[in-house]
Amino acid sequence: MAAKIHVFVVEQDVFGVWNNDLLLNKFGDVFYADGVAVDESLPRLFGPEGNEKDVLKGYVKMQHLLDLHKFKIKEAVLSERYAWQLWLEVGIHLNLGRSDKMKRVQRFVDLYPILSEYGDKDIARVDLRYDIGLAVAWRDKHNNES
To answer: Which of UniProt's keywords are assigned here (predicted)?
Structure first.
């Protein structure tokens, strides 16, 4: 009697990079692909193990809101304490905290036109963890120092 081996191949479409060492599909499933060149434009998503789907869902919702204002998330992090941080492709770091992430992203996009007009400075970081308002760290436009 000959033994049979059944091989199943599942094609995966890469949505993003998970915790810098795994890949993530559009359903939030992680997988490993040895020797595959990963597109640098894919979002980098980070979070506690087992929270892949939550991080993906949060990323998609926040990216949809930011798309309306021509911002792209380069990296999204959900910390062990469930606080969100985003790094945008334009070089801005957003600290959103643990609650009301969508309201805080909306506050950023509402105030960005005013903030972006601030003299010879570029926005480096925006801390949106406050119930109202925000704190901004600036970078000199000419030498990129904070």
So the answer is: Cell cycle, Cell division, Cell inner membrane, Cell membrane, Membrane, Transmembrane, Transmembrane helix
Angstrom distance (rounded) from CA 21 to CA 110: 35
Q: Which residue has the tokens 């308002």?
A: 133
- Map out the domains of the chain with their CATH numbers: 45-140 (3.40.50.11690)
Residue type (1 letter), 146: S
Structure tokens, 33: 């692909």
Whole-model pTM? Answer: 0.87
The DSSP code for 42 is S
Q: What's the burial of 84, exposed, middle or buried (CB within 10 Å: 0-12/13-18/19+)?
A: buried
The CA distance from 119 to 33, in Å, is 46
Sequence-distant (≥ 6) Cβ neighbours of residue 26 within 8 angstroms:
13, 15, 56
Determine contact, residues 109/89, Cβ cutoff 8 Å. Answer: no
Q: How do residues 38-87 score in pLDDT, each as one tens digit? A: 888 999 999 999 999 999 999 999 999 999 999 999 999 999 999 999 99
Q: How far apart are CA 120 and CA 74, in angstroms?
A: 25
